[in-house]
């Protein structure tokens, strides 16, 4: 599903050139659960942004479902993301002015899904995440655990084949963190491919494989 060959990302200022990714080659097969670990500033989130088509690499190749996508324009990347990739972020990234139902519905609006189908999909996603009773509430009325459930519901509502999670339990207490990891694990068992950036050894234990980055390079890969 995912394959990168000698992926590079260089950030330049007038005086400094920083290699965030230095010839990173990774492969993720369909249905895998892969954790990416490493110290802060090692390139984990940069790699996830490129895998999620939020950014292009400076050099190297990126194949998503067999297509070489590293030179895609922003509009091409946006079109390819729709319905294929779901995102879960540490900070939830919910829209404060929209209630739970509307936040979850948002990806379907972008995809042009008809209203009746949108309603069915949103209701199913809310039921799955046990947040139906919160459908009319706004993000600021929810606990951190509930907000992350909304974020996961939004990520899965379009039935993506790939979920990218960036520190999904980073802002949660241990109880809510375990619940969120259980939900991601369930999705993976049903066939969704998951790539997760994490600092947590506990969370990484849910993965099939752990890729360790250091200074923008893959230093180890461990199958669990």
UniProtKB/TrEMBL annotation:
State the Gene3D superfamilies in the record: P-loop containing nucleotide triphosphate hydrolases
The record's section on PANTHER family has: CELL DIVISION ATP-BINDING PROTEIN FTSE, LIPOPROTEIN-RELEASING SYSTEM ATP-BINDING PROTEIN LOLD
Source organism per UniProt: Bacteroides fragilis
* Tagged with keyword Metal-binding: no
Write out the entry's keywords from A to Z: ATP-binding, Nucleotide-binding, Translocase, Transport
What PROSITE patterns does the entry give?
ABC_TRANSPORTER_1, ABC_TRANSPORTER_2
Q: InterPro entries from the xrefs?
A: AAA+_ATPase, ABC_transporter-like_ATP-bd, ABC_transporter-like_CS, MacB-like_ATP-bd, P-loop_NTPase
Protein name according to UniProt? ABC transporter ATP-binding protein
Query: Lineage in the entry?
Result: Bacteria, Pseudomonadati, Bacteroidota, Bacteroidia, Bacteroidales
Q: Which CDD domains match?
A: ABC_MJ0796_LolCDE_FtsE
Which Pfam family, giving just one, matches this sequence?
ABC_tran
The record, for SUPFAM superfamilies, names: P-loop containing nucleoside triphosphate hydrolases
Q: GO terms for CC?
A: membrane protein complex
Annotated ABC transporter domain residues: 5-224
The reply to whether Lipid metabolism figures as a keyword in the UniProt entry is no
* Similarity comment: Belongs to the ABC transporter superfamily. Macrolide exporter (TC 3.A.1.122) family.
Which molecular function GO terms apply here? ATP binding; ATP hydrolysis activity; transmembrane transporter activity
């Amino acid at each position: 599903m995912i394959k990168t060959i000698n992926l590079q990302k260089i950030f330049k200022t007038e005086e400094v050139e920083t290699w965030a990714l230095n010839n990173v080659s990774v492969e993720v097969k369909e249905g895998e659960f892969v954790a990416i670990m490493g110290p802060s500033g090692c390139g984990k989130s940069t790699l996830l942004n490129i895998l999620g088509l939020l950014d292009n690499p400076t050099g190297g190749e990126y194949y998503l479902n067999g297509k070489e996508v590293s030179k895609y324009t922003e509009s091409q990347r946006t079109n390819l993301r729709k319905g294929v990739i779901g995102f879960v972020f540490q900070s939830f990234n919910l829209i404060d002015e929209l209630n739970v139902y509307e936040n979850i519905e948002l990806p379907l609006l972008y995809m042009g899904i008809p209203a009746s189908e949108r309603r069915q999909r949103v209701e199913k996603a809310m039921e799955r995440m046990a947040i139906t009773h919160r459908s009319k509430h706004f993000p600021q009325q929810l606990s951190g655990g509930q907000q992350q459930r909304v974020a996961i519901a939004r990520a899965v509502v379009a039935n993506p084949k790939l979920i990218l999670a960036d520190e999904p339990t980073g802002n949660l207490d241990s109880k809510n963190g375990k619940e969120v990891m259980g939900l991601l694990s369930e999705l993976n068992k049903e066939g969704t491919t998951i790539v997760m950036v994490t600092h947590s050894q506990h969370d990484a234990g849910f993965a099939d494989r752990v890729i360790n980055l250091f200074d923008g390079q893959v230093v180890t890969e461990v199958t669990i």
